[in-house]
Specification:
The complex is a heterodimer of chains A (79) and B (252). Helices cover 10% and strands 27% of the residues of chain A. With 79 residues, chain A is mainly beta. In chain A, strands 2-1-5-3-4 form a five-stranded mixed sheet, with no helix packed on it. Chain A is globular. Chain B has 252 residues and is of the alpha/beta class. The radius of gyration of chain B is 18 Å and the shape is globular. The chains are: A mainly beta (79), B alpha/beta (252).
Chain lengths: 79, 252
């Protein structure tokens, strides 16, 4: 299945060619979870603070569906 | 309505000229109260612009003292302020900029013990803190009191901002249910470009002013993200999480 993935806040450094907020098409087997996607992208899980799937927070064990829009954020917590 | 003095009409002329502001809007700002939690990288532009705009009452909460390493981005503080409480250093600059503004300082950390009594005295809260524990306390207290608050955060070359309007959109916990892993590096390890909190704080101040004026569209349900390297803004639409522990059906 195909997913539309966006990375923010410096996570783009883990994916060659990725740019902040620009969508990347990712091909994954059916049944892939959020954690599985993060692993396959080569991003350390500890650095992903929150995951939004189609604009809603999703847990690491959530199963993704074809066409899902997935956004990955580190903790952008400084002030 | 109390008339603006001649001096105020001149000071705020560029505000008053704006459609939807006028003398009436300026009076709303002068009667408004904003609590700024944190007077560092975000709090500096937030408090400066709110004071300049003529927001009548500003509350500043921060327990820290000014450090040399702050001055690369915390533009309220000067070299001579090193070692002084940040809220006092901030008050000096804000009162010098605009004597119309009543600046109330709280040289303490926001805690469960003082959050309600601090927040209930103001119309809106601006989150200029540097940690998620304090943000969650702000989030939960503002939800309880029905006060809007404006989240801002920065890291390295990136920033994000969203307005939380209790009952009208997602809250901070809808997006960030848990505190981050304490081992994940923050600004102290990764750095932060000084202008990034400048950009994000300026947007937060804009949201607070719009709220007080009742103008325009707020960043409710819209996480606005910013990347200085690619010089890109990207807005992520966020829905309220019905299972949110702070604002959903399961909330206490």
């Amino acid at each position: 299945m195909r997913l539309e993935v966006r990375v923010f806040g410096g996570l783009e450094k883990h994916i060659p060619g990725a740019r902040f907020g620009q969508s990347i098409e990712v091909e994954c087997p059916e049944g892939t979870t959020v954690a599985g996607l993060v692993d396959s992208l080569g991003i350390p899980r500890s650095q992903v603070f929150t995951v939004l799937v189609n604009g809603c927070h999703a847990a690491m064990d959530a199963v993704l569906q074809p066409g899902d829009r997935v956004s990955l954020f580190p903790p952008v917590g400084g002030g | 309505m109390k008339e603006l003095t001649r001096e105020q009409q001149k000071r705020y002329q560029r505000n008053i000229l704006l459609p939807g502001v006028g003398m009436e809007g300026q009076t709303k700002l002068l009667r408004g109260g904003v609590l700024v939690v944190g007077t560092g990288g975000l709090g500096s532009p937030v408090a400066y612009y709110l004071a300049a705009a003529g927001v009548g009452r500003l509350g500043l909460v921060d327990a820290d003292v000014v450090d040399l390493s702050n001055l690369q981005r915390q533009i309220l503080h000067c070299t001579g302020d090193i070692g002084r409480p940040k809220v006092e250093s901030a008050r000096d600059k804000l009162v010098a900029l605009n004597p119309d503004v009543q600046v109330e300082v709280f040289p303490e950390r926001l805690s469960a013990a003082n959050a309600v009594s601090l927040i209930e005295r103001y119309d809106i809260v601006v989150d200029c803190t540097d940690n998620f524990a304090t943000r969650f306390l702000l989030n939960e207290t503002c939800l309880r009191l029905g006060k809007p608050f404006i989240y801002g955060g920065v890291l390295a070359f990136a920033g994000q901002v969203m307005t939380v309007m209790p009952g009208a959109g997602p809250c901070l916990r809808c997006i960030f249910p848990h505190e981050p892993d304490p081992h994940v590096p923050g600004c102290a390890e990764l750095g932060v470009l000084g202008t990034v909190p400048g950009v994000i704080g300026t947007i937060q101040a804009t949201e607070a002013i719009k709220y007080l004026l009742g103008l325009g569209d707020l960043l409710v349900g819209r996480l606005l993200t910013y990347d200085a390297l690619s010089m890109t803004f990207y807005e992520v639409s966020i829905d309220r999480d019905p299972g949110c522990l702070a604002c959903g059906q399961k909330a206490r």
